[in-house]
Amino acid sequence: MKRIILLTMLSFFQWSEAQKSVFQEDKKPIADSLSVYQFGYKKLIVPSIFIGYGILSLTSDDLKQLNKSTQYEISEHKPDHIKLDNYTQFVPAVLVYGLNFSGIKGKHNLKDRSIILGTSLLISSAVVLPTKHLVKEDRPDGSNNLSFPSGHTAFAFATAQFMFREYQEDHFWLSLAGYPFAVFTGIYRTLNDKHWVGDVVAGAGIGILSTEAAYWLFPKISKIFSKANSQNTAFVYPFYQSKTIGLGMSFNF
To answer: How far is residue 184's CA from residue 148's CA, in Å, rounded to a whole number?
Structure first.
């Protein structure tokens, strides 16, 4: 158990340093204001490695053994199964809206950040759900064969990356506050016997990449929602229905 937490925290530290490096690079003067929405190869390195690891864990005997040995160690300690991971996946997004409401403004206004967040979660879902049915990997608890990749972890890292992108310029250390919740979500998907390590790592990569794609697409998508003399409103709200928690989005045009 200690090994799992240590490796996870080490990965988080390395990811934080990588984000800081990218941020410092982004602070250099730019000629085109839209370049903030462009894909930079440095932003793709970490999520690509995560996704690559997850895919490799499906075929590599060594990584399969790591999945099984980790799960065996978890079963030996018999940790309590909790459902906090159903909620923590959305905490970073809630923090962004809460901070903006309290006066600590992020990069975008209410409508624009709602478009970006909605796009990110849609992309993440569009990748995760079909992949689960294509791969058909059994869950550790045997409940079904929809283990790969972890959707909870994908959403958690998508919202954490969203928080980072919104606050990285003016409140850098605050922008990292979403990642502990994302890491917690990933850890507890394994502790709750719902996912293998490879599922969680791949989910993290998908979530990060989904948010980066959402920012890249934003200038194009925003044109759809921008009409002259129109009063557009957008807001995000939590919902709970049939034992399912999530974020709802509403747009008025």
So the answer is: 18
